[in-house]
Design goal:
The protein has 288 residues and is of the alpha/beta class. It contains twelve helices and seven strands. The structure holds adenosine-5'-triphosphate and magnesium ion.
Length: 288
């Protein structure tokens, strides 16, 4: 059975796409058959794994979501033989409006995945920086959510709203949804603030924070413009090592869960400490 992981955080620029591309590529080099789904109209994921925009203008994830074709028809091969991608472009913005009047509009991606998911060990979904109907589609289709969190002072605040959304989706649309883990990104070990924020997050979320930490690494920001994941761009870079380590952690966790399903993995989404709660997080709820 495939594991479907949504990479989500409604905050922009925290490393979602970088994580989606590079985690998917690392799983592929570990010979795990992986499908990367770009669910962001920015289309950065698609280009980041080497696809030319012109090649998928006619058929991309937008067409599969609105039911114009099957998901299978919008899957493209990449340079890595174990990695396929379902790309996106700006047309996806239209899906949000078109889905408004649709029946079961939150379930479109889940339904589209039904015929495809068993061909893959992992499906990685890159979400857009929003908690709109597309993001809810991703959460409804997924087995778990991986939350990239930039190590900065305000990191925890937006998390409240995201965890509320995860709770809501779990309660109504997808009871099996779990928190895969929180991933600290763009970490600078020389900065005491980063260390302090990382320690706070670990204290609160315990083993739900991945041990692997993604350092700030210029190679990671360079490689998308070459259409390559970091492991094909510079295997020896700290960014490569970090994403390979994350991949190992995820595969290992999976094995532990399969071998001895322990209670601690039946994880419920924890509350956020009051000092980190913000007005936005406590008041605003997505419409499900
Ligand atoms: P959006 O919310 O717009 O979709 P995102 O959460 O997907 O953004 P990314 O696009 O992955 O974030 O990253 C934002 C920017 O930071 C990009 O230019 C990316 O190349 C850069 N970046 C991401 N992670 C790192 C890192 N660990 N080190 C250096 N640069 C990084
Ligand atoms: Mg992105």
């Amino acid at each position: 059975m495939s594991k479907i992981i949504a990479i989500a955080n409604q905050k922009g620029g925290v490393g979602k796409t970088t994580t989606a591309i590079n985690l998917a590529a690392c799983l592929a080099v570990a010979e795990k058959k992986t499908l990367l789904i770009d669910l962001d109209p920015q289309g950065n994921c698609s280009v980041g794994v080497g696809l030319e925009k012109e090649t998928f203008e006619e058929k991309n994830i937008y067409h599969a979501i609105i039911g114009k074709c099957s998901l299978e028809e919008v899957i493209y091969k990449t340079e890595l033989s174990y990695l396929d991608v379902a790309p996106a472009d700006q047309n996806l913005i239209g899906a949000e409006i078109e889905l408004v009047s649709e029946f079961a509009r939150e379930q479109k991606l889940k339904l589209a995945l039904e015929t495809v998911k068993d061909k893959y060990d992992y499906v990685i979904i890159d979400c857009l920086p929003s908690l709109n109907v597309l993001a809810v589609n991703a959460l409804t289709a997924s087995s778990s959510v991986l939350v990239p969190l930039q190590t900065e002072y305000y990191a925890m605040q937006g998390l409240m709203q995201l965890l509320n959304t995860i709770r809501l989706v779990k309660g109504s649309l997808n009871p099996d949804l779990d928190l895969e883990g929180i991933l600290l990104t763009m970490f600078d070990s020389r900065t005491s603030l980063h260390k302090q924020v990382a320690a706070d997050i670990r204290e609160h979320f315990g083993d739900k924070v991945f041990e692997s930490v993604i350092p700030r690494n210029v190679k990671l920001s360079e490689c998308p413009s070459f259409g390559k994941p970091i492991i094909l761009y510079d295997i020896k870079s700290p960014g490569s090592e970090a994403y390979l380590s994350l991949m190992r952690e995820i595969i290992l966790r999976e094995r532990i869960i399969e071998e001895e399903p322990a209670d601690e993995f039946n994880y419920t989404v924890p509350p956020i400490p009051e000092e980190y709660q913000d007005a936005q997080g406590t008041e605003s709820q997505p419409q499900l």
